[in-house]
Amino acid sequence: MRRAVRLVLLCTFLVACGGGGSEVEPGDDGDGGVEPGDGGAVPPRDGSTPDDASARDARPDDPRDAMPWEPPPACGDGTRVAPEECDDGNQLEGDGCDPACVRELGFNCPQLAGACAATCGDGLLVLGEGCDDRDVEPGDGCTERCQVEQGYSCLTPGEPCTAKRCGDGMVAGTEACDDGNDVPGDGCSLGCQIEPGYLCNVPGSRCTAARCGDGLRAGDEACDDGNVASGDGCTESCQAVEPNHACPDVGGPCVRTSVCGNGVLTSDEACDDRNVNAGDGCDASCRPESGWICAIAGAACTAASCGDGIVAGSERCDDGDTMPGDGCDARCQLEVGWACAAQSGASACHRTVCGDHVLEGSEACDDGNDIVGDGCGPTCLIEPSCPVGQACTSVCGDGLRLATDADEECDDGNVRDGDGCSADCRVEAGFSCTDVRSTLPATFPLTVVYRDFVHKALNGSVRHPDFEIFAGSGPTLGLVGPELVSGKPSYTGRCDASKSYPNGNCAHSQQTTTAANFAQWYANAEVPNVMKRYVMQMNMAQGAGGTYRNPTFGKQLFPLDATGFVAMSPAKEQRTNATVDGVSAGRNFGFTSEIHHWFEFDGGEVLTFSGDDDVWVFIGGKLALDIGGLHSKVSRTIRLTADGQALCFVGTTDSGTSCGTTARGLPAGNVYEMALFHAERHTNESNFDLTLTGFVAARSTCESRCGDGIVTSGELCDAGSVCEGGERTGASCVVAGDCPAGSCKSLNDGSYGRCASDCGSYGPHCGDGVKQGAEACDLGSAGNLGNYGGCTQDCKRGPYCGDAKVDGYSGERCDLGAAGNVGDYEGCTATCMLADRCGDGMVQADEGELCDDGLNRSGYGGCGPGCVPAPHCGDGVVQRARGEQCDDGAAQNDGHYGGCTATCKAASRCGDGTVDRDQGESCDDANLNAYDGCSAQCRLDVVI
């Protein structure tokens, strides 16, 4: 009716406007004239001006032709001026006023200025409207403002909205899903709610069952990281977030919440030493490495045990045992003269070979030879550089350290790191180094180079001409020059056998032959069939008054009896069948000795030599003691004075008698070289007694500082120390000076979690395998891995049934805590399994359950939530969508006449087309029409 009225009015309007469908411009009354106030002539829309000939021809008598032309109004300036139908201040399309200021369909625009508004109720859907059903009545799906009401769908403009219902394939209102049907159990329930375990992403489409590992969290999943593997934050069943992880609510990869390397131990870490470096006992994943023990969180890991075949902590080697003498000692430190290489298993140790050009083990240098005095000695120790008459230049690693040497904080005679004194002679952290001068060593070694000569020829062999030919009864001075030349004594030619010495200049006859023959005495290179070199150690032993003597002191010296030409073949050299010191036959009387030793000159040093045949001692490269020539045993002593003088005395008595020394002007406080050259070249006696006093140089010895908090070689642990009652000057105090006005208390007291007082062992601690104190458990450092049912690295219980956390990766289905896991209805059992409950497929009638099919999804004929029956035949409600014709309730659905069957179908009754005579029916034509001969009561009626 409303539409008919509109049509009548429209037709009336068209007739009034002249009919025929002529176009009427807005604002024009159709009479072709100009109304007052209408703004005058309207310029054509084609842009032509009123001066155009066509315009004048169309209106030849128009008085406006004489009026001046005005430009057209500006569309979009916000003011409506004819011929504009609207002007909303812009030239946008779709907002009711188009770019040409023409009103768009479906909008009302203000008469003068302003924005246009949608015309609600015109059946046109325009900007700002959600619907338009051609009216402005609310309650029919589209409000009076043309917005869609909740629970409705308005798809077609101008058509009535339709009430939304579950199952129509559109999600609206409180619906969470709509798969286009009203069948429950397929992911979207009868009430259009998502059922557990399903994803419903597309309205009108079937839901899909959620699958663990698809990366989407749905249903009863606690997480879904896109796989079915544990250990990455989400368990393999997607039922639980693993400890120390966080997982997105919508699914996707989980992230760790614990940080390896921050020194804080979390349940998924077995260690944390404040870094992520491998090879220090705790790897980049904060798992302990084999052979290490990480007893204290945030502290450095240490070696688990010396002798386990794994080099760890402060160990320098580990050969699989703790036996000394095989290169690696009982504390897994490298022994002198050995090198140990780390292999896949235990360290393989071997003796070092000085002179092989391979620097290894305890060698401080290796120049490929055994020459003494060339900077690297025969035992591969660094030698100072000592110009003649000048102080030596000490270098790091030579074992010499002057008190005034600022470049060296220590010098332990090697260039190894890790032993307290570094390769650049700096004291290493955790050590204290002292120079051993007040406490002298029990022994110190002197390296001796022996040279063997043939002194008695046999069967045509060549005897050296300077051996076993001359004789003498006393020292012959002046056989060598006053200074060393290239580190060797220089030959003077005095008492040369090739010369004559009148007037008794050589009272003891000739002593040598030629300079060439003398040069062989101390040559660095061997002379075939003439001279052989041997490098040996002479361990000087400390005696009374701090003096040191050679081990054969008081006895005769025969170092080459078992070697050299005598031992090689009887055809080379005749054995001397003499009995000396109770030893008979086979003695070697033809050899020389060369010794170099460096010392710090303070004044008061004393050297005494007693022996035969030749001895020359040089101090600072200058001759200090001259006992040359063949002679029987004599004794001489030199004493160095603080003013740099070298005084020589006969015997061992300070008689003030000079004995030909030339060493002068050596300033004290420097390092100098003592060089001793000796020759044994005549049979019957071989005396060599050397006594040194004050010639032991200061060498640094370094020891670990237990209590400084730094684990060093020889220490297993070190918890440090604290200053009590005073001001601490360092991180830890180990001596009183580190804690002024207070006392230093060591934290290495052997108590729980602490180190023993000697830093060599641990006190009771988490990881020792013994449950103690506040520990909940302790399976040992190798067993405290935080596994399910196990123990964590900090000796707390790992995840377990009863911790009130569902550990799905370990098979738990629920966990209400130890006190709650008692098997109550809908609770949890003691084994963290689900107790009896609605949904377990078993009817617990004593708990009020009426049904339980294990799904309980409200499907027709099944069981609904709460274990009560879902809609079904017999519930007294007719579900016609399920094919029910009737439902009188389970008790009444007995198939009685006129009632309902047990399958909710109509029982026999009047009108079913079957004559039930036992029920009094005489007819039944199924139409219950009283006028066709069979009454509504199925009786035959008489038709009149």
Helix-strand layout with pairing:
Layout: H1 2-16, H2 53-58, E1 107-108, E2 117-118, E3 152-153, E4 162-163, E5 198-199, E6 208-209, E7 245-246, E8 255-256, E9 292-293, E10 302-303, E11 338-341, E12 348-351, E13 431-436, E14 443-453, H3 515-519, E15 531-542, E16 547-549, H4 564-568, E17 579-580, E18 583-584, E19 591-601, E20 606-611, E21 614-619, E22 622-627, E23 634-640, E24 646-650, E25 670-680, E26 688-693, E27 699-704, E28 721-724, E29 743-746, E30 863-864, E31 868-869
Antiparallel strand pairs: 1-2, 3-4, 5-6, 7-8, 9-10, 11-12, 13-27, 14-15, 14-19, 15-16, 16-26, 17-18, 19-25, 20-23, 20-26, 21-22, 21-25, 23-24, 28-29, 30-31
Task: Note the main attributes of this structure.
944 residues; mainly beta; two-stranded antiparallel sheet; 4 helices; 15% strand; elongated
